[in-house]
Structure formats: structure tokens, C-alpha cells
Amino acid sequence: MKHGIIGWQKVAMRLGACIAGVSLLSAQGFAAKPLVHDGEFYFLQAQYQDAWEKEDREIDAKLADLRKGNEGKPPNIVFVLIDDVSFGQMGKPALNDVIGVKTPRINDFARQGMSLNRMYTEPSCTPTRAATLTGRHPVRTGIKEVKVALVGEGLGANEVTIAEVLSKAGYNTAHVGKWHQGDIEEAYPHNQGFDFAAFPLHQQVQLALMSPEAARANNLLGWYGGTQSNALALDQRFKPSGLVTGVEARKGGQAREVDLKPGETWTQAHYERMNERYQQQTLEQLREMAGKDEPFFLQYWPLYPLNFVHPEQAQSLNGGFMADKLELIDAWFGEVLDEMDKLGVTENTLVLFMADNGLMYHYEGTSGLNQLVYRGGKTDFTEGGVRVDAYVRWPGAIEAGSSAADIVHASDVFTTFARVADAYKYVPRDRVIDGIDQTPVLFKGNGNGRRDYVYVYQNELLRAIVKQEWKMHLPAPGMPAAAAGVYNVYRDPREEHPLIGHSLWSGASFQDMAKRHMMTIKKYPHNKLGKGKPYEGIENLRPESEATVENFMSWH
Questions:
Q1: Is residue 298 scored above 50 in pLDDT?
Q2: Partner of 385 for a Cys bridge, out of 280, 314, 380, 544, CB 3.0 to 4.6 A?
Q3: Topology of 74-451+526-553 in CATH?
Q4: Chain-centroid distance, C-alpha 522
Q5: How far is the C-alpha of 412 from the C-alpha of 134, rounded, in Å?
Q6: CATH number for the domain whose boundaries are 460-524
Q7: DSSP string spanning 348-409?
């Protein structure tokens, strides 16, 4: 933050007006009615509004010039989101050497664009994906935790996704790969704004474990008859033989399962073919959409192609089962970039590549990935759970080889994509949008971010608040406020040494931040999670899946 600060009395007056719903800015000039943001944003806005307005005029002119050079069209957008990789594992050659994993294509991509070195996510994959899709903290959408097996829940139809926003602006949209937003019809991607969708109904750990091979390897107790005595047979609901695997669909139509036929058994080979198919479908969608006149938005969220059954001979120096697959994903990402070059769309395409949260550290010993810089991993509110590598490229707009230390949150993906796509006017104004437009960082570089804070949730509990270099761990329910530790994440990146003195002077400010956040929630209550009957809207549901749904519904 480079700009001057106005008097605190004036800040307070403006903040109060904003929270009351009378904004002082016109949302960067995009619409008469501004977005509804969290209280902390208004606190910053009141201090920097004059500088931001000037900056926005410059950015508007830059975006107009870019569209003029692209036949009047905004850029294509490709968003690649991968699973469970902590900060430092990819895109940084020196750290590649430290862990014995090579990511040459991601490294090259990082050099061609900007490294976002303070990218925050949610602690696990389902919430992070919801945040990028809606621009909202997942707690506001009901998507608060990872969902596995049958749940009869998912992203509600009342949420507005980035695909819906971009569709209104004339974009062709496609989603390929992991979705993980629920198993009910309203939550499927083709019902959430995507023109085409190819996706699994469940996540990769389930898919990698639900085969007879995994059962024989003692990875899924009770699934495969013959691996144990049937004297203590498990309830059928614990056996995943009826789960729907991968489906495909187009907007306005029904989904079709494409992996299994009635009576067919899911195997490790099926799972590997699924992953390879998603890679090929991504390339196919690129070719199809690049041949149209309209801009496109391609969302590729590859599954981790895990193999818990017979680990292959190590491909990497590291040899861990996830480390090897990270090298495979690196190659797949390279194929996507090469295809863009062949199609001649590289110059007019913004590409974002990032992870969804920290490593699955429960497997740290064998996966080959580790807590390289920050402590903790998936599901944690420490930096190791919510700090990830993120790289963005847009030739001619983003300076090659640049980096930014500005705080960025996964929800900012939504608003930033909307602005560069000239679609900001389609972002809803009737709910809190936590995402902040970070185009100034992309265009003007380090030091031009518009957030210096992050709220970190675990499920529905607010567990930490980040403000600049400071981070407070909020006390667990029932614990005294004095138990809240404050950490300097630059000096103490592993959050091991709470600063008592700093806790005393900053504690009240952090509590004020929490109060502003809660004021916003009170004014705009959380939406409810979508609920329904699993697997509706799949036209070729197998008898095995129908029986599984009947079992599920019998106790719901």
C-alpha cells in the first residue's frame, strides 16, 4: 500500500456508510451499484479510494487497448487448479532440487508470467474450489468441508459462479476434471454455468481406493469379498460398488456416466483411463473453443492420478507416489500450453495455474511431498494448509518474470477474471463478494494489491486472521481470548513462536477485524447448502447406483 492515509475519523464515517450499504465508490466504475464486500475491505477502501480511482482509470484504458488489439474481444481464460501441493513444491527450480522433483514446464511458465507468492486458499479442496467459483468464503455458501461418498448435498442453485458471469459476457465455457461440489443435480457444473462438463462425481482418493486391487492391497477393508472373513460383513452402505464415476454433460441436458456399464467392476485401469481422458478432453475443448469467434473460459482441474495399489518404479529422484504424479501433471500442463501455441491463442489468453491447498500431510512420509517452508497441510489453518504456489501469465499484459508479495485469496480469482473479461457488471450485488479485483497487481506489479488481510476458516469456525505480516490464531471454542497467539509470518513462517508483546498491542485490532466480519455476516446471512437426492439428472444410472441411492435415502 503506497498511498497516503486520511484521518481516522473520516475513515470511520466512510466505513459506517459502506457497511450500511451506501458505498462511496462505484465498484471501479463498472456498475452504478457496487459490489457488497466484507467490512475490512471498506476500511481499506476508505483510506485509498482516491488513489484507487485514478489507478482504475489507467487499468480501464489498458484493458480497452488489449481488447482493441484482439478484435474487440476480452482475453480467453484458462484456469488450471491441482490438488494438495504445498508452497515451494513446483515452479521454483532451486526448491525442485531440494525435494528431488522436477517441474520444468511449470517452472518455465512461472518465468513467463508472474509468481503470486502470497496466494491463500481454504484449508481443503472443496471449500477452495467453491471460493474460486463464487468469489465467496465457502462458509457463506454452505460448502464448508470436503464431501465424500454419497451426501445428497452440494453447491446451491442460488449461488452465481464465474462460469455464469462469463457466459453472460459472451464466453464459451467448459469444465474438465475434478469438480467436488456435490452429488446433487443442481450442483453439477453444466447446471452451474458451464456449456460442457466432463467430471467425476467423487474425488480421486475414493476413486483410487474403490477397486478390488486396492482392497487386496489392504487399502479398503471390507470392499472385496475374499480379502477377509464374511463373519463380520459390513453394511452395504460402506461398499462403494454403486458409486457413479465419471460423467459428461452439456448445459441444459442430462449427464451420462461414461466409465462403467451395468455389472462392470471399477478397477485401477479404469481410474488411470479416466485421468488420461480428462487430459485429452482438455485439449479437445481447447481446439473446439479456439475455433469459435467468442472468447472462451476453460477450467481444467486434473485429478491426482494416484496409485495406491502397486506403486510404479520411481520416475523422480524423490520417488514418492505423489511426487511422481506431480511430474506427470507438469507434463500434462506442458501439453496444454503447447496446444495453445499450436492454436495461436497464447498471446490472447490469461492462464492461472495454482494448487488448491497444502499437502495431504497424513501421507507425508510416502507421498514425497513435504512441509517445505510452512508448517501443516491440508485441513490446517496454519500457513502450510493455506499457502500455495500460484502463477499467472498473460503476454503483453503481465510482465514476464515478475513476482508479487501482495496477499491474494482464492476468492479473488472470481472477481479478477470478471474484470479482465469485461463481465464485472454481471457479478451479483445482492450478497457478499469476498473476492477483490486484483487486476492492479497483474498490471502494475508488486505493491499494488487491494487486500492486506485474510480470514481463515476451518469448516464453520473462524480460526485465524492474517493482516499484513501478522497472523492471529483465534482460540478454539471455550478457550480464553488470552490463548490467541500472534505470529510474524515473515520471521516465523512455521508459526511456532507466539509473540506475547505483539499479542497485547494487536489483539484489539484483530478483534475489531473479527467484529467487522461478523457485522457483514449479520447483515448478509449465509446461504444454505443445496440438498437433494444423489445422482438425479444422470440419464443412464446403473442398477448398482440406483440400489446405492435407495440405501442412502432409506435413512435420510
A1: yes
A2: 380
A3: Alkaline Phosphatase, subunit A (3.40.720)
A4: 26
A5: 10
A6: 3.30.1120.10
A7: GEEEEEEESSS--GGGHHHHS---SSSS--TT-SSHHHHEE-EEEE-TTTS-TTEEEEEEEE
- Percentage of the chain beyond pLDDT 70 is 87
Inter-residue contact 418 to 164 (CB < 8 Å):
no
Query: In the chain, which segments carry CATH 3.40.720.10?
Result: 74-451+526-553
DSSP 3-state of 207: helix
Sequence ranges of the chain with CATH classification 3.30.1120.10: 460-524
- State the maximum Cα–Cα separation within the chain, in Å, rounded to a whole number: 75
What pLDDT is attached to residue 521?
Answer: 94
| C-alpha span between 192 and 156 (Å, rounded) | 9
Average pLDDT value over all residues in the chain: 88
pLDDT tens digit string along 361-390? Answer: 777 778 888 899 999 989 899 999 999 999
Grid cell at residue 106: 511449470
Q: How far apart are CA 213 and CA 553, in angstroms?
A: 29
Dump strand ranges (E) for 72-141: 76-82, 114-120
Reported as a single tens digit per residue, the pLDDT across 421-477 is 999 999 999 999 999 999 999 999 999 999 999 999 998 999 999 999 999 998 877
Half-sphere exposure (Cβ direction) of 25: Cα atoms closer than 13 Å: 24
